[in-house]
From TrEMBL:
InterPro entries: N2O_reductase_NosL (IPR008719), TAT_signal (IPR006311). PROSITE patterns: TAT. Gene3D superfamilies: 3.30.70.2050. It comes from Halorubrum lacusprofundi (strain ATCC 49239 / DSM 5036 / JCM 8891 / ACAM 34). This is NosL family protein. It holds the Pfam family NosL.
Amino acid sequence: MTETEPLSVSRRRLLAGVGAGLSLAAAGCLGDESASITPVSLDGERACDQCGMIIADHPGPVGQIHFEDDEPEGGRPGQFCSSTCTYTYRFDAEDAGRTVRAAFLTDYSLVDQEVFQEGSDTMFSSHVEREAFSRMIDLTVVARSEVVGAMGPELISFGEEEDVESFVEEYGGEPMAAEDVDRGTLEAL
C-alpha cells in the first residue's frame, strides 16, 4: 500500500474492533473470564436449539448463548435462528437453574444488511458469521417494528445508537436495552 492509497476499513468495523479490544483488556484487568468468550459462526447446517430450523436458511437476527455448565448442547454454545428463539431458550434455561456466561445476537450496526420484501413482510438479511455478533449486554433491540424475522415478529439488535434511531425512523418500533427484554416483551410482540 502506498502513502496515497486510502485504508479500506469501514468505520463500523474499526469501531467494533477497537471496542472489542478495549472490552477484552478491561475484562482481563478485572478478572472476568467470561469476557474471553467469543462468538462462533453459525453457518452450514446448524439447527436452532429452540425450534430446529436451519439457522442459515432464514432471515433476521440470530443468536448464541454460552452456558457455565459446560454447555450440554454438545460442547458448543446454544445456537438460534432468531432473537425470539434466543431469548425463549435463555429464559427456560435460567428457570432450570443454568447460568449464562455470555450471550450474543446479530449486531446490525456491524453488517451491511439487505432489506427485502417477502409478501407483505419486510425482512433483514441473516448474518451467521462470527464477526456479525455482539454481546447482548452491549446491544439495543427494537421491538414491535415493521421488520419481521424467521419466527415472525422480531427484536432487531444494534450496537450503535445512531443506527437504532435511523431504524426506528424508517421502520417504527420501540428501542430498549437488550438485557431488559423479559418474557412479557416477547409476549407483546
